[in-house]
Amino acid sequence: MNTLMKQTLTASILSTMIASTAFAVPAEAPPVFVKKVADGLIARLKADNAKLQNNPAAVKAIVRQNLDPYIDSQAFTRIVMGTYATNQYSTAAQRAQFERNFRETLIENYGTAFAKFSNQTYNIRPYKATDSKNPVVTLDFNNKGEKIPVSFQLVDKGSQWKIRNINVSGIDLGLQFRNQFAATVKRNGGSLDKAIANFEPDAEVAVNKK
What we know:
The structure is a single chain. By secondary structure, the chain is an alpha+beta fold. It has one domain: Nuclear Transport Factor 2, Chain: A (Roll), CATH 3.10.450.710. The chain has helices at residues 3-22, 30-47, 49-52, 56-66, 73-81, 92-117, 173-187, 192-198, 203-207, and strands spanning 121-124, 136-143, 146-156, 161-168, 171-172. The longest helix is centred in the middle third of the chain and has 26 residues, at 92-117.
């Protein structure tokens, strides 16, 4: 094969790879994705319900296995850090440390929340495709006659959807966590390192903020 043919073949292969990457989209519709994630997590919590009583570590492990792979922690980090996520206020190392810490506490928060919902039924609201970039899918959990809406804001990661923010009963958790983090920075005298080390987002406080 001469040099010209090799160059032409290489260019053709590269262009095909770039095109397939650029136009890759999630195979599942947003409500199908959210239902799959919710059903998988709730099924595990129900199946192991007896083992989970007074065992937060077990709940955390199940949530990690069934929810963590579908969370876009980088997007969540940017939302929660707010202006502190910019180069003007933080370094890449600080943002990476915040993401690691935040991901751990996020698992604990969602573990506690979903453990409460594990014995409840839910309905998925009719989906309206108004935002293809960040679609929102809402589940209404039926908790002893009370309807608790939980909305999942998604982001297109090319091959699958991921969850970038969650809204519970009209409360934007990302925004509430951002307010909590800003307060933590203030309590630590403006030290971002101390705030990152000491930040403990509290979903229950956030949801009861009304």
